[in-house]
Structures are given as structure tokens and as C-alpha cells.
């Protein structure tokens, strides 16, 4: 088993983790913050706030979201404990096979440069409802991880679908437009762990990328590290207690004909403290044909379709080939 970053002492930054300076510009000092939306407010106000934030930044944070506090605490505690386990307890789950739905991996290379990024990741996947065989494929240590992950998947998937309904109402689609095949693929949970880094200014936890899925919910914890591209700059996302960060994936951008956009983001490491975040990704089924909604493209006063229709399976083949940068994906799928 290759040594995980979280299981070693790091006094110096290995050369393989050093990104060229032009690929790691510092974040802006500008006081730009993601909107924080209280989902318990009047529905009309919430819908308007979600849509405005989505159009302006493609990212926002939500509070009073309905995910029970105990579900969040249990997931955070189990995930942090998982990365503290001895290497031998994690070895059986380690794999560099990207086709495996459930695996532990580390220091993946990104793009064509060959640089490795400063992250360990536990990836869990399942259909929904979570079947027993899917749950049993997850790590059995620490105690309670499987149960915590199952409750977390159910709660975060429910929140994601509610956010999609709000977006549908805001853009003029029927409320259940994204239910069915567009959101019935595997739920994927990435538990990202960024150990303390000896030289965080010269590396990246995750390089700039756009999400491949429909919608993403991120529990980013109490340590800052997420940065979002905004008007040619990078803005730091400050953690908000009890909040989830929401962002849109390429499938939502295609389906809304570019009205809502998948925005580049990255993660940076810290020299002082570890950071653990948990992302829930909602996916279409592999055979789902994703295309601009007829209500938003073509005919009358509607703009022409900006993206070609594509199955999610074929989208992923291209995405893995061209890379996760926004410009590359747009070039591949825009009409």
C-alpha cells in the first residue's frame, strides 16, 4: 500500500507536489463572500435567493437546511477517525483503480502536468435507497461509519433534491424536472482529507476543476480551504457553522442551457491543521440523455440550445479525456 499523506510525517514538500507558480495564483484579498441562505425562510424569498446566488457565483451556503445536527456530527467524527486509523486497518480499502466505486486513494495526479495534489480521499458510492450490499462494501472501521454514512447520504440527497426543486421553480421548469433518471444515478460521497502541509503556498489540495455531476453539497468543516473562481480571481470560502456549501455541476449547466453554471473551484492545504470535508454528489444514470430543457432552449423568444445532448456515460468518457477545467469541457460540449 502506498503511504497515505495522513499517515506520515512531512518535514519538506516533495518535488512531485509542487505546482508551477502560474497554476497556483493566490486568492484575492477582496471581501467577497458566498451568500448564506436560510432555507427556513418564506419559500418565495428562498427561491429568489438561491437563483440569484446560483446565477452570480454558482456557489452559495445554506443553513437551517433540515439535515439533522447529529447526522452531521456523527459523519464528521467517523470520517476524522477513519483517517487516524493505523495504515494496516485501511490497507484493504486502498486502490488506484478509478473504476472501483468504493476505495481509498491518495496523491492523485491531475491533468497532463503530472503534479500530485495534497489530499487523501475516501470515496463511497451507492444507489438509493442504500442497499445492504452497497453498505457492506464500505469500510467496517471505525465502528459506526457505515451507519453514519447511510444516514448522511439519505439526508444530503433529500436536501439536494429540494434545492433542485427550488431551482426548477425559479427558472420555469416543472418542480420535478430533475427527479427520475437525471438524479437517479449513484450517490457518491468523497471524504477529502488534507493533512498539514510543510509548504502549502507551493502546492494545491485540489487543482481548479468543475464538477461533472448534477449538484454538489459540501460539508467543509471548520477549517477554511475551499476557494471559488470569481471574475478572474479566487475568493476564499469562510466556514459557516452548521452550513453546507452548494455548487452546480456540468449536468445542471447543460440542462438549464447555461442559465446556471458549473464554476471552477480548488482546495488549498494548511501548514498548521488538518482539514476534512465531505462532498455529496448527485449523478444522472449512465444512460440518461442530458440536454437543454425544451422550456429553456429553442423556439420563440428562447435562446437556441448551447449544448449538445449527451448521455452521462458519454459525457464522462470525454470529461476524463479532456480534463476537469471549465474551458476544456465547454469546448467539448458547446454547440
TrEMBL record:
Pfam families, per database record: 2OG-FeII_Oxy, DIOX_N
MF terms in GO: dioxygenase activity; metal ion binding
Organism annotation: Zea mays (Maize)
Recorded family membership: Belongs to the iron/ascorbate-dependent oxidoreductase family.
Gene3D superfamilies attached to this UniProt entry: B-lactam Antibiotic, Isopenicillin N Synthase, Chain
Residue ranges occupied by any Fe2OG dioxygenase domain in the UniProt entry: 183-284
Keywords: Dioxygenase, Iron, Metal-binding, Oxidoreductase
Name by which UniProt lists this protein: Hyoscyamine 6-dioxygenase
